[in-house]
Write the C-alpha cells for this entry.
Amino acid sequence: YLAQPDLRIGAAIPSWEFDDSARDYREQGELRGADPDAPALLLYTSGTTARPKGVIHIQRTLAGNASYMGAWEFKQDDHTLLFTSMAHASGAIMLLMSSLWMGATVTIVPVFEAGAVLDTWARSGATFFMALPTMVRALLAEQRLQPRRITSGRLAICGGDAVSVPMQQEYADLFGHPLVEGFGMTEGLPVLANRPDNNRPGSMGQPLGDVEIRVVDGEMWLRGRGIA
C-alpha cells in the first residue's frame, strides 16, 4: 500500500512512503508455496489452423518448461536478452519466466530494433537469446553495417520459421557462438531443439527433457510435464 502523493502542478516533488495503515510484510510470515495445479498463465495460440485458442499453463507446466532449458546448460549466471513479444510463449515462458524461475538475469528491450538490440547486448553482457529468423537477419545486417564488440554471447536459439543453414553459419562467423534451431508452441516451449554440442543444421533437433513425441496420422502428439 502506497500513500498517494500530491501531483498538482507546482507541488513539491513527491516521495513514495508506506501508508501507516499498511501491515509490515514481515508480519505475514513466509509466503506459501504455489499450488502446482493452479492456473498461472493464459496465452492465445497463433490460430494457424483455426481461430486462436486460449492455452492455460499451470504452475507445474511452467516449471516443466524451465527444466527443459537445462538441455542448453542454462544456469543462474546466464543473462537472457529478451526482445521478442511477451504476448507469445517465446517471450513470456521461454525467455522471461524460465529465466527467472532458474534465477538468471533478464534484460528487456521493449521494442525490437536491430541497432538497439545490439547496443543493449554489448552493454549488458547477455549470454543467451531466442529470436525469429527475420529478427536474426536484421541483426546480421546491422552487425555487418556497424559492428559492435560483443563477446559475451554463448548461445542463440532460432525458430518460428525456416532457419536456413547459411544463416546459421553467417551468425556463427559474425558473433562467435552457435545459432541453433528449435521448435515449440504455445502449449509448450521449448520442446524440441538442437544442442550446441550436438547440432544438426537443417534439423529442429531432438526432444528436450521428458518430452515424448509421436507422429499420428500427420499430427504431432507431445507429452511431458511442460506441455499444457
The chain has five helices and eleven strands. The longest helix spans residues 89-101. The radius of gyration is 21 Å.
